[in-house]
Amino acid sequence: MKTQIDRLPRLAIALPVLCAVLVALTWITVSAKAVRERSLAEAGATQHAQALARSYAEQLQRTVSEINQITLTLKYYWENTGQRPSLEDQASHGLYPPSSRLYVVVFDRNGRTLSSTMPNPSRQSVADREYFKAHQGSAETGLFISQPYISRSFGRPVIAFSRVLRDRSGDFDGVILVAVEPTVLLSFFGQSSMSGQDLIALHRTDGALVAARTSDSAPAGNALLASAPRPQGESGVQPVNGSQFTDGAARILAWQRLADYPLVATAGLATSKIYIAAEEAARTDRRYATTLTMVLIVAGFAGALACLRAAAHAQREARIKDTYRLATDGAREGFFMVRSQTNGQGKIIDFQVEDCNERGAAFVGYARAGLMGKSFSDLYRGAALNKVMRIFRHAMDNDFHEDEFQLSAVGRDRPLWLHRRLVRSGDALAMTVRDISDVRAHAEQLARMANEDALTTLHNRHWLMQTMPQMLARAQASGGMLALLFFDLDDFKNINNTLGHAAGDQLLRMTALRLRGALRPGDHGVRLGGDEFTVILEQIGSAEQAEAITARVVEALATPFVLADGSRHAVHASIGISMYPADGEDAETLIKHADIAMYDVKASGKGQFRFYHADLSASLVQRLALEQALRDAIEGDQFVVHYQPRVDTFTGALRSMEALVRWAHPQRGMVPPLEFIPVAESMGLILTLGEQVADKVCAQLGAWQRRGLPPVPVSINVSAQQFNQGDVAAMLADCMARHRIEAALLEVELTESCMLATDRPVAEQLAAIKALGVRLLVDDFGTGYSSLSQLQQLDLDVLKVDRAFTSQLSAGAQGIAFFRAIVSMAHVLDMSVVAEGVETEEELRLLRELACDEVQGYYISRPLPPEAMEALMRGAFTQAGIHPVADGA
Ligand code: C2E
Ligand code: CA
Ligand code: CA
User: Are 815 and 843 in contact (CB under 8 A)?
Assistant: First the structure.
């Protein structure tokens, strides 16, 4: 390709040069042809001139012979007959035709005319004439031929042919003259094909010109030859250039000496004429040559232009290619052009790197120059060669191949992931290679992120759902079991809400850490979200094995956590367990069943674990239905409050009434609080429910007040959750304000657990409630672990001794002793004592003996609806004694 590009500009020069050479050759040929034709024409003309000269000489020979014959005949008669023939007479008899321009004269020894054929012969002597003198002086001259001279007889030029006459003694006796007009000697011109500037001439052998003519002028002929060379020798031919003729016309002169006379005949052909044909041909040739020249010039330039254009185009293309390579060299993509090498049968046996960019070469650890022309068999060995050949053959077969592969980290800081794309083009493959290491790394990180819980680095729900099918398939294949543990952290929500999310997060991280510690290496801890966790135990041989691991987890989480602020928190986990295949065959079912099992654990005491059982599902369904109904009840205001009186042990006077909530269920009727209060507590609904109760109580107190009934305080039961999650004091203040109720009419009953289970300083809340003017009662006293001194510190007003102790009173001395101790200690601490659940007169009698301050129970009155309570308030109780009141509920 490169060499081709280089060739183009050279071709652009070579083409015009070639054309120039052709032009030159054409012209050389043309001129050579012209020269040849000229010389041919010249040779022809030379021959022609020679032929002309010869025939001219022959004609002259005859003419001169005739003239000579006349002189010889006359001489004979004149010398030998003694007669004097009359030439005039002979002429009159037509012997010498007058038009012949030939005159015969006989002169005496003095040059006087003796006889003449001329019409008017001159009387003058010709003794001065050249020919006369020649004969006079010389011994023998034969036929004398003169140069032209002007005849005295008729005034025109003539040429004299003369012969001497002698007397008997041989002395000079006169001259016989045949005078001939030059035209007689030059008639050849007209008879031959000569014309124009052609020329004939007649010389004497001594060089003297006798006659000459061209077509134009006979007289000019003589002058014409003024400087022309004199003919030499017997015969000859010679080109003579124009400068030697007065008319300037070049000629070829040929001459021939007459056979019997001292005369030379010359024929001259005008060169201008002989070259006409040659020049015409040459002109035609030149015209053709000119046309050809023009064509060649145009072709040469056009060709050169085309070459230059093609060169420019090729150069541009090469530049683009270079630029592309430069660009791609700088880019991430490597590219290769590899050509397949086949054996005789057309089977591909190797590939050769035909081209590549630097980037591409670098991928395989080469510089581009080092890789060019290399075969795969040079670059690879053994299994690696087989593999690469398989891929490239496949690409050749399918026209396309695309894959990703990894290059080892040898010579690099990390292994390379490359994307390779092969496209077939004829018997070659174009391959692009892209470094996708970053993309891969990113994808891997994303995958990790997608499968990992960011906070705890445990697996996440996504991972679980992705991976469970495989784990289940494995368990199925091996015929083994799999356990799924499900748990959340009891009371985690409290911690998160009260201490903030940072503390919550810390707790979750610590949980994950402990969970990991409790699991076997192959087990999977998963955080599903919030405080919900699952654990997958693979390779479980028996339920006991799962139980052992679960117990470890429970134990690990039972130890209180110490947070960054130093606070300690007991966060127990209630764990539900489901087993594959017994409890479910897919992830969702297993999770659901473990969740149900966990729910069951929570309902019956926390920090435990339980296996799923089919029955659990049924109770859960009930429970869920209850929860939903409870929500609806709160929403639909289905609760009513009943009131149970608390009276003075001795006088029976109405001291207070306890507000006890009931659910007026549309189908089930009155539902007792023990069926829904714990559920509302675990659902967090107790806050709302508690508010509703407080509101109803205040509203009722307001109503009674307005109707003028004697004011009797009402005690309200408040759950631990209400203290933990809400502001009870504020809630009560709000209710009282709304219904304009004095604080003295409200009392709060709280259990010992309220004061102990919470981490929040309850003292402040209790103080706040007391500050409102509301009295505080300890409910169910005796069932918890609080000491009396603790209760005193909290400034509590009343102890309500649990019904369990009241019912023990009539059973024996121990119950009485216990009760007495409580009463006396409470009195020491300035607290009054209420006995709950007084059901008999005997109990009341004993409580009077024990100086218990107040009593409450069915013996006094069952909890009553407000209307029934009203009657009691109007004076059913008397100072005199306590009479059992019929149950109005
Ligand atoms: P509690 O606070 O100990 O309430 C006294 C319970 O004893 C009441 O049951 C009452 O009907 C019952 N009782 C009273 N005298 C006798 C008796 O002589 N013999 C027997 N066997 N029982 C007697 P009730 O109404 O079913 O309430 C049960 C529990 O529900 C209450 O125990 C209390 O803890 C809770 N509760 C009731 N109303 C509310 C409420 O508004 N808020 C909260 N947080 N808890 C409430
Ligand atoms: Ca109570
Ligand atoms: Ca109680």
Answer: no
**Segments in 241-275 forming alpha helices (H):** 271-274
Confidence of residue 464 (pLDDT cuts 50, 70, 90): very high
Residue ID of nearest Cα to ligand 1 atom 3: 780
Pick from 657, 717, 721 the residue to mutate for probing ligand 1's pocket: most ligand atoms within 8 Å of its CB: 717
Ligand 2 centre from 717 Cα, in Å? 5
Query: What is the C-alpha separation between 756 and 759, in angstroms, rounded?
Result: 8
Task: Report how far residue 222's alpha carbon sits from residue 256's, in angstroms, rounded to the nearest whole number.
Answer: 18
User: Which run of H or E residues covers position 202?
Assistant: strand 199-204
Q: Which residues contact 755 (CB under 8 A, 6 or more apart)?
A: 762, 766, 786, 790, 791, 794
**Phi, psi dihedrals of residue 151, rounded to the nearest 5°:** -70, 135
Q: Side chain identity at 309, as an amino acid letter?
A: R
| SS3 assignment, position 887 | coil
Residues near ion ligand 3 (Cβ under 5 Å): 779-780, 836
Beta-strand pair 714-717/746-751: parallel
Which amino acid type is present at position 757? A
| pTM exceeds cut of 0.70 | no
The neighbour count for residue 401, using CB atoms within 10 Å, is 19
Distance CA 763, CA 747 (A): 17
Atom 41 (ligand 1): residue with closest C-alpha? 661
Hey, is 37 helix, strand or coil? helix
Residue where the block lists tokens 């030159």: 24
For 871, residues 6+ apart whose C-beta sits below 8 A from its C-beta are none
User: Whole-angstrom Cα distance, residue 205 to residue 430?
Assistant: 101
CB neighbour class for 541 (10 Å; exposed up to 12, middle 13-18, buried from 19) = exposed
Q: Give the number of other Cβ atoms within 10 Å of residue 43's Cβ.
A: 12
How many angstroms separate the CA atoms of 761 and 657, rounded?
Answer: 29
The count of C-alpha atoms lying within 13 angstroms of the C-alpha of 592, restricted to the half-sphere facing its C-beta, is 11
Does residue 142 contact residue 263 with C-beta atoms inside 8 Å? no
> Which of 177-181, 193-197, 838-842 shows the highest mean pLDDT?
838-842
Q: Which tokens is 868 given?
A: 């029934």
- CA pair distance 459, 465, nearest whole angstrom: 10
Residues in contact with ligand 1 by the CB-under-6-Å rule are 644, 659-661, 672-674, 677, 693, 717-719, 779-780, 803, 837-839, 857-858, 863
The per-residue pLDDT for range 772-822, each reduced to its tens digit, is 999 999 999 988 767 666 777 788 899 999 999 999 998 888 889 989 989
Q: Indicate the length of the chain as a whole number.
A: 889
Find the ligand nearest to 863 CA. Answer: 1
Find the 63 Cα to ligand 3 centroid distance in Å: 192
| HEC secondary structure over 60-98 | HHHHHHHHHHHHHHHHHHHHHHCCCCCHHHHHHCCCCCH
Tokens of 188: 């050849």
Quote the Cα angle for 331-334-338, to 5°: 150
Residues facing 485 on adjacent strands: 535, 577
State the greatest distance between any 2 C-alpha atoms of the chain, in Å, as a whole number.
244
| 7 membership: H or E segment, kind and range | helix 2-76
SS3 485: strand
Q: How far is CA 825 from CA 21, 548, 796, 847, 848, in A?
A: 143, 48, 13, 15, 16
**Which residue in this structure is represented by tokens 């509302």?**
680
Residue 495 has what pLDDT?
78
Distance, CA of 297 to CA of 121 (rounded, Å): 78
Mean pLDDT, residues 329-344 taken together: 82
Nearest-atom number in ligand 1 for the CA of 856 is: 15
The whole-angstrom separation of Cα 516 and Cα 511 is 9
Give residue 660 CA to ligand 1 midpoint distance, Å: 6
Q: Is 878 helix (H, G, I), strand (E, B) or coil?
A: coil
Cis peptide before 673 (omega within 30 of 0): no
